[in-house]
Amino acid sequence: MTEYRVGADIGGTFTDVVFLGSDGTVLAKKIASTPDDYSRAVLDGINACIEELGVSPGSVSEVSHGFTVATNAIIEQKGASTALITTEGFRDILELRRNRVPTLYDLYYQKPPTLVKRQLRLEVRERLNFRGEVLQPLDTADVDEAVQKIKMAGVESVAVCLLHSYANPEHERYIGKVVREQLPDVILTLSSELLPEMKEYERTSTTVINGYVRPVVERYMISLTKGLEEMGVGVPLSVMQSNGGLATSAIAMEKPVYCIESGPAAGVVGAFHLGNRLGMGNLMTLDMGGTTAKASIIENREILQAPEYEVGGGISVGHRLLRGSGHILRVPSIDLAEVGAGGGSIASVDSSGSIRVGPQSSGAVPGPACYQQGGRDATVTDSDVMLGYLNPKHLLGGDFPLDKELAVDAVSRNVASPLGISDIEAAHGIHLLVNSNMARALRAVSSERGRDPRRFVLFSFGGGGPVHAAGLAEMLDITRIVVPPFPGVFSSFGLLVADVEHHFVQTYFKTFDELIVPDLADLLEGLWEQGRKQLSLEGFDDSNQEVVTQVDMKYEGQVSDLTVMMPAGKVTQQTITALGEAYAEEHEKSFGYRTDAPYQLVNLRVIARGHSPVSRVPDRLEIPTLASQDGQAERPVYFGPSNGWLDTKVVDRSGVAGGSNGSSGGSSGASGPLIIEEYDSTTVVPPGWRASVDQWRNIILER
Amino acid sequence: MVQTTDPVTREIVKNALMSAADTMALTVVRTARSAVIKHGMDFSTALFTADGQQVAQGLTLPPHLGSMAPALEGVMNAFGDDVQPGDVFANNDPYEGASHLPDIFLFKPIFANDTLMGWSCCIGHQTDIGGRVAGGNACDNIEIYQEGLILPPLKLYSKGELNQAVWRILEKNVRVPEKVLGDVQALLAAVRFGERDLLRLVDEYGFEELKSYMIDILDTTERLTRAEISNLPQGEWEFSDYIDNDGIDPQPIEIHAKLKIQGDEVFVDFEGTSPQAKGSINPNFAYTKSNVYAVVKCLIDPAIQSNSGFFRPFNITAPEGCFVNPQHPAPVAARGLAGFRICHTMFGAMAKAMPGKVPAAWGGGEIGVSFGGYDKNRKAWVYLEFMNDGPRGGGPNMDGGDGLSSPVLNMANTPIESIEADQPLLIERFGLYPDTGGAGEYRGGLGLIRDYRVLADEAVFQLRSDRTDFLPWGVDGGKPGAPTRNYLNPDTDLEELPGKKLMTLKKGDLYRVIQAGGGGYGDPLKRDVSAVLDDVEQEKLSVPHARDEYGVVIDQDTLKLDQPATEALRAEMAKERRE
Questions:
Q1: Could you report the predicted ipTM of this complex, rounded to two decimals?
Q2: Is residue A269 situated within a structural domain?
Q3: B203 close contact with A: CB closer than 8 A
Q4: Nearest CA to A273 among A438, A490, A466, A446?
């Protein structure tokens, strides 16, 4: 019997479900999300696939899930009522944040509301220093008083975060004990258990968010599991974490902060695994959706991680120096640069005669003008229709017809007329500009980090990614592009190929001179053991466990740290020496110089991965062929002023491999201009590019 | 030779130049050694045309708006044609175009085929620049020579060769050379990235074409700025705001601005401003101008590029020797305070020009503190902190953000746990201070309270603060914010400190600051009663404050609102006011 693994990814507008059979069969469904109860769309989608495939629910062997329930709870402030217990004098840390203002020159900026009201942020007398030494003992009467207040207020969740508790958890543990005794039904999160890491705002915010979303996530997970069981799908549910690793639903319910915004991570993980298959270790991924585009980088077969990110901030310009718009979460996450550039991005002309594209978006409603939902603004999708890149009759296999006349009208009125240029020049200008905005995201993950984008293969997905990939690659001098199978639902595909992964952190603030090797070795042993224990619980035997150690380090006195890999094996003086050299190299690579300042350790990070005994990436994929809906095999497409309109052949993915469009195609593949249309996306192959399809059904574009 | 340019390519080139300036800025953030640069973000990056016009600025500090062009002009005046590939120029001399001594400017000329194509530039505020007092920010210096090492325009690198003499002089004249030299290294890395990225654009577009686009970008920004200015109300308005004193002379300093908006240009004249101060809070004229630009930017489209085109429609004048245009050898180190007050003066005039559009003054009191000394190994330590300027003033239609930075500041605070791990200090309290926001229909934001305890045997403590006498003003009937307060050892033998002070603290001493609150907006008696009650429940306002300032009667024990008593009290207060 063919078994199916199922990936289900909830997005703001659509929920994507992908079935991957043990025989390589793939079925994808894109259905409208159901915000009143997100699990409904997931269950409906799974049901629809089961019916379409004509198989029994019992043939589903696993379900991997990416969800936005926690994110939405934060944005909509619908999390649990939460109280915070903290050190006397510091209850406003949560409200003051790091005090960076994300929009300069804005007289009307307001901070996002805190997740715990001020009167529920309670202080207790106690004080530690950064070494964990007790400067003032915990006042147990204060603890009792705080717990009484919490009892009176009737909250669902309690977060505890004391100053310097990363270095000594005793005071937090005592408070935890009292809370458990006095308030047995309340959900409790201790910062020293969740995140024993220096930096009080980041630790407080993370601890509070965990408490705030945990009841919501629990309810959701329980309801989804129940729904699956009722359907006859009784397999364990895995959840994608922001770091790109899967976790069991038990972990997701206990530490939901690790699973916030898991969808974007899944796409990058999919790229990573397909890239490995193709022998491509250096990839830049571009995920272009309706409102934003997200870029990330995979270098030397490593996904680049960021130690923190913000949730609920919204996108302005995606600028890395304009931080502070959301709530900070200090958990490892795949490093994504996001810009407000998507299919719905609005193009307009300002009073100086400059075109602007985005970050304002027409959203799902009314959407681009050509969606026929009353939108009057010119958007990127409208320009793509005018240029012939998108087939008005083809979106989602023809289920979603577009009106080209409305697109022309919007672009003409909003851009062409004000600039005094032709409609098609305006459409092409919009296309180039949105590419240029996305190029900023790609530069943010490459050149802004000292990496040359030309060394990378562009891995492009999301509904709009393959439309824009070639133009974007030209802008960055990139010569190779991969468009994976099912680019429009690729995040769901990523869910199916991800490994299990857990992260553990412990601050260890010592210079090389101060550290004692056996102490460090013991500390790391403890973290490794935690990781192995977790993996064993999840059924991974020793041979399928991988535990790696990273260290956040800096030169003493420097404010920012860099993360470097620690050599494997027992920690000895040699390990420390090698670590210092690795740091100096990384510093030089990133910033162009090294100094003789002493090395300072900051945090120890342990990553425990559980590998599936058999490869999770299938050897081959069976993709259903789609006939072009109106039988139109050729249409005029505009490729810029130097090429003008070219009659361009339209094929589907299976038509590429042996395809030739009249020019001498070589041994395999086809030369541009060419349009490749599929159920969920369109790939544009401009003149000068060659397209081919490899054995795993990826479209490869080269020039 | 001007080639034809098209609007799409122009935007793409503009994006690429901005990316380049941002790459420079991120390089500085990631490699800097000091908290001032890393968390305080007290630096800026930019790219210039060959003739010294700023064409792209990396995002950072608004008071640096337009400050780099005069410093580059200082370099050009000093060196004329003697600009070679591989050179890197430094300048920190406020009287040769730079800003104040801690701000070191670096300029790298960029050559394409032996022809000067442009300049890659960085400013970074150094933790120390030598001089009388650690941290380079003392208020009570009376001439620039006391403020530290002066680096007039000079070549730090000549044809790729480091000028060892300058490097060694810098190393030996600052108290924390590893931080300062580390930060200068970070700036050097950034100007090199700027050069690399600009040369890539030359490769892509060609020398002449890129030049044309750069000129076109500047002209477009100028057109956009002029169009925005011509939409502002036309006319003339005047306003004065005050600095308590300079820390030496007790008398207040008046900043007087006459604002005229005429057609598509802005005229600002500071005639009527007090003479330059003895102490070092004088802003040099370039800095004065930067702050005027920043205010106007808040009132027009903030997305307008920060390039030289933006500055063209401004006509800013001030008599020589007045406070905002001081002459050599006036000290200028602590001019940050004056910059914020120039903003307040400009916003005050704007509030008259655009009623209903401009909030009340933000508070904060411009607090800059430094602690410094030597550890047991005679190694110097310095901790310099600018407490974020803010909280914001109230209105229109919203309360001022509690403890929130002003709109012209992008500073982050340093984590307390990091400060305590790196410095012999303990931060014992950091939070909002109730009742400090100016009352109003939309109240001013609450100021912050912060306690610093000294753990070293001894520390030189330097305080610069303001708004003890002249409070953050309200608008349209709103009350001013509460004053700044500075205390030594408040819980043992309390001593109230003046706003500006230099003294030695002993181990165990505790310094407390309470920031000035933001001004209020509109009549406090019109404030929504439920908003007052919510503030009281959150312990942001006390019950007596709610009664005395807002006429809202709340029971101290139950925190229940007494509606009839409130109506009666509000009626009575309104009547008293009329009488």
A1: 0.93
A2: no
A3: no
A4: A490
Q: Are residues A198 and A227 in the same domain?
A: no
CA distances from A671 to A626, A661, B525 (A): 21, 7, 74
Distances (CA, A) of B476 to A75, B107, B360, B361, B541: 34, 46, 9, 12, 22
Could you give the number of structural domains in chain A? 6
Q: Is the pLDDT of residue A660 over 60?
A: no
Nearest CB to A352 within list B34, B185, B223: B223
In this structure, the strands spanning A699-702 and A480-483 are antiparallel
| Entry pTM | 0.91
Is there a single domain that holds both residue A279 and residue A402? no
Alpha helices in B354-493 (DSSP H): 416-422
**Tokens 């589903």 sit on residue:** A60
Burial of A672 (0-12, 13-18, 19+ CB in 10 A): buried
Relative to beta strand A457-461, strand A480-483 is parallel
Beta-carbon contacts of residue B85 (< 8 Å; ≥ 6 apart): B109, B111, B114, B159, B160
Task: Judge whether B19 is closer than 8 Å to chain A, CB to CB.
Answer: yes
Contact B416 A108 (CB under 8 A): no
Question: Which CATH number characterizes residue A319's domain?
Answer: 3.30.420.40
Question: Which residues make Cβ contacts (< 8 Å) with residue B429, sequence separation at least 6?
Answer: A89, A90, B449, B450, B451, B512
| Degrees to nearest 5, angle at CA A372 with A370 and A373 | 120
Q: Same domain for A13 and A95?
A: no
* Tens digit of each residue's pLDDT (9 = 90 or more) over B128-169: 999 988 877 777 899 999 999 999 999 999 999 999 999 999
Closest Cα in chain B, distance from residue A449 (Å):
8
Residues A66 and A120 in one domain: no
- The shortest CB-CB distance from A509 to any of B358, B414, B421 is to B421
DSSP-derived pairing of the beta strands A682-685 and A327-329: unpaired
Q: Is residue A574 part of a domain?
A: yes
| Same domain, residue pair A122 and A183 | yes
- Contact list in B for residue A110 (CB cut-off 8 A) is 398, 401
pLDDT number for residue A31 = 86
The distance of A88 to chain B (nearest Cα, Å) reads: 8
> Which phi and psi (to 5°) does residue A370 adopt?
-70, -10
- Distance from C-alpha of A326 to C-alpha of A310, rounded to nearest angstrom: 5
Is the Cβ pair A106, B302 closer than 8 Å? yes
A388 and A328, same structural domain? Answer: no
Residue B30 predicted with pLDDT over 80:
no
Task: Tell me the pLDDT tens digit for each residue of A605-654.
Answer: 999 999 887 777 777 777 665 554 445 589 999 999 999 999 999 998 88
Let me know if residue A439 belongs to a domain: yes
Which pair of tokens denotes residue A549? 């150690």
Binary contact (A109, B401; C-beta < 8 A): yes
Query: In chain B, positions 213-242, which contact chain A (CB-CB < 8 Å)?
Result: 220-221, 223-224, 227-228
Residue A364 lies in a domain: yes
Query: Least CA distance to A127: which residue of chain B?
Result: B428
Residue A321 belongs to domain spanning: 275-341+435-497
How far apart are the C-alpha atoms of B267 and B260, rounded to whole Å?
A: 5
Q: How confident is the model over A379-393, as pLDDT tens digits?
A: 999 999 999 999 888
| A101 contacts B405? CB cut-off 8 A | yes
